[in-house]
């Protein structure tokens, strides 16, 4: 019976974590460039239950033989294995803001490949983002809305000298006659990217992203005055949240039934009279 406790409780914990992930997706449905988190559930190994007993054969010396019969398999629970971002392209919408840039995926040779803008975090390290909702700081540098510097293809900060600049479809920013290619990074395995907050990603456990312009077969385009929206499907997310909540309630009822059975076993069946 205690195994049933653990199975029901582990399922409740898994659904709670799944609910948190889905809620976070729904909260970022309007965040530019946001990539929805996808959680995967896995079951713990199953246990094969068997019953040990004896069988008495009526002979002169009363022969007793050990017997073993299988009862069946018992699942020992479920857990949230991992939460990984979905890097599919979000819808591109027009904003008519010169500082907004949408990165549009073209041909990508690798199935899990991904393209990103490069930015500099507050520690001076290179990070990656799909959020092209940029702005210009008081010193004339192109930055994110959080004040992080946007980098060019040589990992240098981009000086725009104001709001009057253009960005071509190839991702080249032109200001006062000076052309500066935006830093567009490419990784062959975006599944190795980890969310870091402030719409940033970092590479963990894989090869660092490289300049996308130097990778054969990689094609992309940039659109000034546009933004890539979140790839969260709000309708599907709401449906999954309802299903997750119902599963949580079901396991809660199972846990309550086990508790009532245990209460009866301890306080009624096990009473010494």
TrEMBL record:
Q: Which InterPro entries match?
A: Flag_bb_rod_N, Flagellar_FlgE/F/G, Flg_bb/hook_C_dom, FlgE/F/G-like, LlgE_F_G-like_D1
Supply the SUPFAM superfamilies for this chain. Flagellar hook protein flgE
Q: Which residues form the Flagellar hook protein FlgE/F/G-like D1 domain?
A: 113-174
List GO BP terms, alphabetically.
bacterial-type flagellum-dependent swarming motility
Q: Which domain of life is it from?
A: Bacteria
- Would I find Metal-binding among this entry's keywords? no
In its UniProt entry, what is this protein called? Flagellar basal body rod protein subunit C
Source organism of this protein record: Pontibacillus litoralis JSM 072002
User: Which lineage ranks, top first, belong to the organism behind this chain?
Assistant: Bacteria, Bacillati, Bacillota, Bacilli, Bacillales
